Amino acid sequence: MDTGTATPKRDAAPMDPATLSRHLCDVAERRDKAAFAELFRHFSPRLKSYLLRLGGSASGAEELVQETMVAVWRKADRYDPSKASASTWIFTIARNLRIDAYRRQKHPEIEADDPALAPEPDEAPDVAVGRGQDAARLTEALSRLSDADRSLLRMSFYDDLSHSTIADRLGLPLGTVKSRIRLAFGKLRTALAQPEDDI
Amino acid sequence: MLPTQHLSDALLIDYAAGTVSEGWSLAIATHLALCPACRNRVLAAEAIGGAMIEAIEPEPVSEDALAATLARIEADGESEPRRPAVPPADTLFPEPLRSYLANAGGIVWRRLSPSAQTFIIPTGDRSTTARLLKIAAGAAMPVHSHRGLELTLVLQGAFHDEGGTFARGDIEEANEEVEHQPIAMPGEDCICLAVTDAKLRFRGLPRLLQPFLGI
After folding, report:
1. Nearest to B192 by CA among B92, B42, B104
2. What is the ipTM of this complex?
């Protein structure tokens, strides 16, 4: 419905990563339903859009959005804000549920408590890359990529295409696609590794 | 010792985006268990997924979606119990591989040659074959090339081939362009997780080694 305003009102003030992360921690620690509702308002239209792009029907996508958000509620105590932004953590939940729903397969993952897990060496050089506070920096770095590089990453994350399928689609040698992905990913990781002041 | 042979960025992004099928992801995730450096790279790759979710054009959900979700939470919203951390009998097979082997009812080795044994690991993925390979210390695999991709993750011992030396936690990515002959290092039998999506191509396989043709 046209409300006469230029921007859709729900997204008029998108929430910043720190707020989203705090809401998610409130859900984990206090089972806070108001915080959950805020997360739902922010994420459910984005998750629906993501799931629709990956080939779900409108009703199927809506169902998976609800499943994802129920899983967010149930697993919130496993969210570690030092490792990932709320968006990243919720993305991985939606990813796993859609693989299960659309492909009837699992997405095998490490087990955080596994005694066989090789421990983190102290101060690994890459250790900061996934952290929540880096979300804004990553968005900025993504916007600085060339259109071609960004479109490669979009084909992976939005179109569910593996790098070998991308090579087939674009008619490029596999090695070319692999090195373009490596360069693009390298730029993003370099941007993430910069200290705050360098931006 | 931490692994020195890692996953390519392309496969790592495939895993983070969820575009590769279960067999590949089993090998990738088991490498991640043994490789903190690649775990960090996956966190970075998943962060791209998070940034893309933020940047996507939102699609309105139905008016009652929040109420419906809250109702589901009311009905069954206890937090999910974490899996109890039972120390495994040995740590040779990290998760997620350990659970796949347990679901298979344990390992039953099948002999390929006097120096090689195999066990096929059941997965939900019909496009790939995941197997354990055990090569006797010092023994050589037959020379082979690939019709598709082969991921080989070392779990015990070590092997070397044209691509270098691979020890516990190291992963080798071999495609159509690679012809190699993995040779187990002396001292200890080499156990690997190998995932393929097409049969290997063996060069001049002696009759004694015909069982390898199934791989």
Report:
1. B92
2. 0.91
